[in-house]
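BUG: 3D viewer hangs when loading the predicted structure for this chain

Environment: internal workstation, default settings.
Expected: structure renders.
Actual: progress bar stalls at 90%.

Input used:
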Amino acid sequence: MGQGRRAARRLRTSDRASLGGQTHVDERDQMPGASPRGTYLLIADALRKEIGKGRFAETGLPSEAALMREHGVARTTVRRALEILEQEGLIHAAPGVGRVVSDGSERRPLAQRVTDMITERGFAIGDAFPSEARLCEEFAVSRTALRSALSALEGRGILEAVHGKGRFVRALPVSTHDS
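Structure tokens produced before the viewer hung:
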């Protein structure tokens, strides 16, 4: 049962006793209505303003738990706000550090960066692809982010995963920079 329902039930029970069986709920004790804009968007805006002022440049963003306490919201709400800032390229996750303000140097999707690496390094069909550990280090991303990008490339038929042997180039990507 949700926290608001429990509070309303406690209130109804205590009010019945104090009001001779009549049910009375004070409007101040009700859960506030949902923000018309979305609470996660308001948090994202607040963080965006702080990033603009340079507040998190040295220290990185506060933890999810700290943001939950500061804004009085659930973890899911904080994560949605952080996802928006990540999609905008303002922040990124740094393995072992947390979320930090992006320096703006690389905003292309990871799958595109890996695809460009295949082309730039002259991989041929059937060539072994570098290990996940090596790619994580090279692109400075988490293993989860890298696996997502590699999975997308496998889905497009560019890479092939062979259990116990690694990944191999299955097809060469079509260049997207030819204009």
